[in-house]
Amino acid sequence: MADQYFSIGRFVAAFGLKGELILRHSLGKGLRTLEVVFLENRKDGFLPYFVEEIRVKGTGEVYMKLEGVDTPEQARLLNQKEVWLREADFSRMAARSAPVSLLGFHLIDGETDLGEVVEVIEQPMQVLCKLFIRGKEVLIPLHKGTMGKLDKDHKRLYVTLPEGLLDVYLGET
C-alpha cells in the first residue's frame, strides 16, 4: 500500500544565513522529534527532506534546518511550499486535540457517510473540514452546534448539519 501524506503547514520565510526556514504548522505542539518532511514535487509525488535541527519560534511556528539546504538562496526556493508528513509521523506528531488531527476521518450525518476529511481549515470562530461529495468540494463547519460523537477507533466524526447546507454545494433543492 502506498504511503498516505498529510499537509501540516507551509514554509513561510527563509531565515538567517545558514538556510533555515520558518515552518507555520497546525499540529498543536512542538516538532522537536521530527526527522523527515516531504515536499510535493509533482501531483501525488513527494520528495523527502531530512531535518537537521528544529527550534521553536512561537505558537504554531518553528525554525527548521533541512539537510542540503545551506544558503538563504536555497531556502528561498522552498519558501511557500506546503509541508507534508507520512501518515505514521502525522499520527505521532499531531496533538490529539488539534483540529488537524481530523484529517482522514469520515464525517457522518445521521446514517450518511459524507466522505473523508481531506483538509482542515482553521478560522477564528470555527473549523472547516473540506471533503468531496460526488466530485464537488464541500466545506463543513465544525462547532458545538454541528459536532457530535468522535469515534477515534473507526476514524469517524458524527455531525448534525444545518438543513440545506449540502444543497448549497451540490446544487439540489
From TrEMBL:
<dbReference type="InterPro" id="IPR009000">
    <property type="entry name" value="Transl_B-barrel_sf"/>
</dbReference>
<comment type="subunit">
    <text>Binds ribosomal protein uS19.</text>
</comment>
<keyword id="KW-0963">Cytoplasm</keyword>
<protein>
    <recommendedName>
        <fullName>Ribosome maturation factor RimM</fullName>
    </recommendedName>
</protein>
<feature type="domain" description="RimM N-terminal">
    <location>
        <begin position="8"/>
        <end position="88"/>
    </location>
</feature>
<dbReference type="Pfam" id="PF24986">
    <property type="entry name" value="PRC_RimM"/>
</dbReference>
<dbReference type="GO" id="GO:0005737">
    <property type="term" value="C:cytoplasm"/>
</dbReference>
<dbReference type="InterPro" id="IPR011033">
    <property type="entry name" value="PRC_barrel-like_sf"/>
</dbReference>
<comment type="similarity">
    <text>Belongs to the RimM family.</text>
</comment>
<dbReference type="InterPro" id="IPR056792">
    <property type="entry name" value="PRC_RimM"/>
</dbReference>
<dbReference type="GO" id="GO:0006364">
    <property type="term" value="P:rRNA processing"/>
</dbReference>
<dbReference type="InterPro" id="IPR002676">
    <property type="entry name" value="RimM_N"/>
</dbReference>
<dbReference type="InterPro" id="IPR011961">
    <property type="entry name" value="RimM"/>
</dbReference>
<dbReference type="GO" id="GO:0005840">
    <property type="term" value="C:ribosome"/>
</dbReference>
<keyword id="KW-0698">rRNA processing</keyword>
<dbReference type="GO" id="GO:0042274">
    <property type="term" value="P:ribosomal small subunit biogenesis"/>
</dbReference>
<dbReference type="InterPro" id="IPR036976">
    <property type="entry name" value="RimM_N_sf"/>
</dbReference>
<dbReference type="Pfam" id="PF01782">
    <property type="entry name" value="RimM"/>
</dbReference>
<comment type="function">
    <text>An accessory protein needed during the final step in the assembly of 30S ribosomal subunit, possibly for assembly of the head region. Essential for efficient processing of 16S rRNA. May be needed both before and after RbfA during the maturation of 16S rRNA. It has affinity for free ribosomal 30S subunits but not for 70S ribosomes.</text>
</comment>
<feature type="domain" description="Ribosome maturation factor RimM PRC barrel">
    <location>
        <begin position="101"/>
        <end position="165"/>
    </location>
</feature>
<keyword id="KW-0690">Ribosome biogenesis</keyword>
<dbReference type="GO" id="GO:0043022">
    <property type="term" value="F:ribosome binding"/>
</dbReference>
<keyword id="KW-0143">Chaperone</keyword>
